[in-house]
Amino acid sequence: MQLAELFSRALSADDLIGFVAYDGSRSGPPDAEVTIEIRSPFALSHLASAPGELGLARAFVSGHIEVHGDLHRMFHLLGDLDLGKMDRGTKARLLGLLVQRRLWWPVGPPPQEARPRGWRHSKGRDAQAISHHYDVSNTFYEWVLGPSMAYTCAVYPTAESTLEQAQYAKHDLVARKLGLDEGMRLLDVGCGWGGMVMHAAEHYGVKALGVTLSRAQAEWAQKAIVERGLQDVAEVRFCDYRDLAETGFDAISSIGLTEHIGAGNLPSYFDSLYSKLRTGGRLLNHCITRPSDDHPFKAGGFISRYIFPDGELEGPGFLMSSMNRAGFEIRHSENLREHYAMTLDAWCANLDEHWDEAVREVGLPKARIWRLYLAGCQWGFDINNVQLHQILGVKLDGTSSHMPLRPTW
């Protein structure tokens, strides 16, 4: 069996994807909308050392595999990349080829992988994990995220809305759910580049404080705050939320942070946020979730090694129960899954538009990591493998929630 056909069978491509290999072999339809090129024998050694998605990702990141066509479409055509489902004959042929060519281990360590040290979700290890993903390059993030510098799910008012309009709508939705009003104090934990902090201060007259574990984010945000003349009412601080001394906030937003907390730490996380709110104050938790508590989740090797080390996703029911046990009364929840797929599509387009600059800024391996990551995540939201929930809770004032009879947002 030739190499291209072997790869086709190994990936269960079912004649939907074309394959070409360095040995001159071809497989699949000649007019396929997506073609995978095996450019080097070391593509095989990556598969041998890490069967499944991690091995394929390593081969792609290091340039031993190339994809011609749309990466997002490739994920839809291939589906779940589980090489453990190969039939015995294909496994035997692949093993024989590896042994014959002495390609059992790749040469050199795969590039750009994260291996944080210390106890999982300790302050030191969390700082390493956050730095790996967020301290890449502010310039790179500007190209991918656009002017809003919002690295969380946008909310599209219409299918025709631009990314910037959708990010503005997301921040405004959070502000209205929190009931922000002039003179209030807002805490935004995991604030990123300060988008929510600046939106709340500029449009709602709120005094807003954001905290982030990324030094690069904090520096960028503080500069943007000064440029917009908001330094008297807005601040972004390089700080672990666990070390924040201030309390008595009127509202707290947590946008895209819970994924980094870990299930075992969620009780103390929500306890901490509850203690920082005044009575009657609201918490809006916005995060990626599993479709349900029963839906199995284990971060794949690619995401764990290249994107979000130590990342964990919980079901919406588990999150609501954790908030409830901390003392919050749950008042509203909604799923914005389709909006995240649209957001990722826009980020993919931005990266494609600035591809040459991105490669010069962060290097080809990192740029390829991001292209694969964004397209794969978009596919995950498309097929309901992951969701995005906003959950609103309130710290009761005795028995009063101070909530309107019907939602005003």
Task: Walk me through this protein's architecture.
This protein has two domains: 3-101, Nonspecific Lipid-transfer Protein, Chain A (2-Layer Sandwich); 123-394, Vaccinia Virus protein VP39 (Rossmann fold), CATH 3.40.50.150. 43% of the residues lie in helices and 16% in strands. The chain has 16 helices and eleven strands. Helix 2 (42-49) runs antiparallel to helix 3 (53-61), helix 11 (266-276) crosses helix 13 and helix 14 (337-353) packs antiparallel against helix 16 (364-382).
Helix-and-strand structural type: alpha/beta
Distance between the termini: 61 Å
Q: What's the CATH topology label of the largest domain? A: Rossmann fold
| Largest sheet data | 7 strands, mixed
Mean pLDDT: 87
* Binned strand content: 15-25%
**How would you sum up the global shape?**
elongated
Number of helices: 16
Helix content: 40-55%
Annotated CATH architecture of the largest domain: 3-Layer(aba) Sandwich
Unreliable residue stretches: none
The total domain count is 2
Radius of gyration: 23 Å
**How is the largest sheet built, in terms of strand order?**
7-6-5-8-9-11-10
Protein name: Cyclopropane-fatty-acyl-phospholipid synthase
Organism: Kutzneria albida DSM 43870
Active site: 377
GO molecular function, one term: methyltransferase activity
